[in-house]
Amino acid sequence: QKEVEQDPGPLSVPEGAIVSLNCTYSNSAFQYFMWYRQYSRKGPELLMYTYSSGNKEDGRFTAQVDKSSKYISLFIRDSQPSDSATYLCAMSFFTGGGNKLTFGTGTQLKVEL
Amino acid sequence: EPEVTQTPSHQVTQMGQEVILRCVPISNHLYFYWYRQILGQKVEFLVSFYNNEISEKSEIFDDQFSVERPDGSNFTLKIRSTKLEDSAMYFCASSDRGSETQYFGPGTRLLVL
């Protein structure tokens, strides 16, 4: 079983739609959960960070963590063509010398006009 | 806004040659990382560096790899004798004390021929 599983897509939605992106994980030691956005051939850009279970909202983005189910989600409201990118979930736990991020494979999202 | 920078953006080398990839992390950050992403695959952790020493490394980070912080601003990844399978995008990242969020550079695309 992979440590972090993410549906690679591609996911195609019309402009204005609500997008739901998800990851599951197997390592119960993960404490920190992040969503990154990656445009083609660019570095990952941090979108959202959450610690432990619960919801966090930032503008059109909502991150949700359910540690009991080992399931995290990112919701994008009123999606725009500029949201077209690959979305990576990442998770970690602090070991004293830093956080090793474990990434999902990424979900490719296309928002169509 | 402070950002992580990386040079060169692209590097082409012959198998068996040494390469040095350079990074300038965000200036007040204390934890430094290298990740790689083979084309079409997920982002993978290579190594973390804190307090002038390696704090964690992955199985990928074998004796051919080394990292160094030669001065107060640069962080380098050296591959001593490159192999074809080292062809990938290499990302540097950094984070602050007490922060679990890592900020990524734009990457160096390495092609080994």
Q: How would you characterize the overall build of this protein?
A:
The complex is a heterodimer of chains A (113) and B (113). With 113 residues, chain A is mainly beta. Helix content of chain A is 0%, strand content 54%. Chain A has no helices and 11 strands. In chain A, the strands form 2 sheets. In chain A, strands 2, 4, 5, 9, 10 and 11 form a 6-stranded mixed β-sheet that branches. A 5-stranded antiparallel β-sheet of chain A has the order 1-3-8-7-6, with no helix packed on it. Chain A starts with a strand and ends with a strand. Chain B has 113 residues and is mostly beta strands. In chain B, a hairpin with a 6-residue loop joins strand 7 and strand 8. The N and C termini of chain B lie far apart (37 Å). The interface between A and B is medium-sized, with 28 and 29 residues.
Describe how the helices and strands are arranged.
The complex is a heterodimer of chains A (113) and B (113).
Chain A: E1 4-6, E2 11-14, E3 19-25, E4 32-38, E5 45-51, E6 54-58, E7 61-66, E8 71-76, E9 85-92, E10 102-103, E11 107-112
Parallel strand pairs in A: 2-11
Antiparallel strand pairs in A: 1-3, 3-8, 4-5, 4-9, 6-7, 7-8, 9-10, 9-11
Chain B: E1 5-7, E2 10-13, E3 19-24, E4 31-37, E5 43-50, E6 53-57, E7 65-68, E8 75-79, E9 88-95, E10 103-104, E11 108-112
Parallel strand pairs in B: 2-11
Antiparallel strand pairs in B: 1-3, 3-8, 4-5, 4-9, 5-6, 7-8, 9-10, 9-11
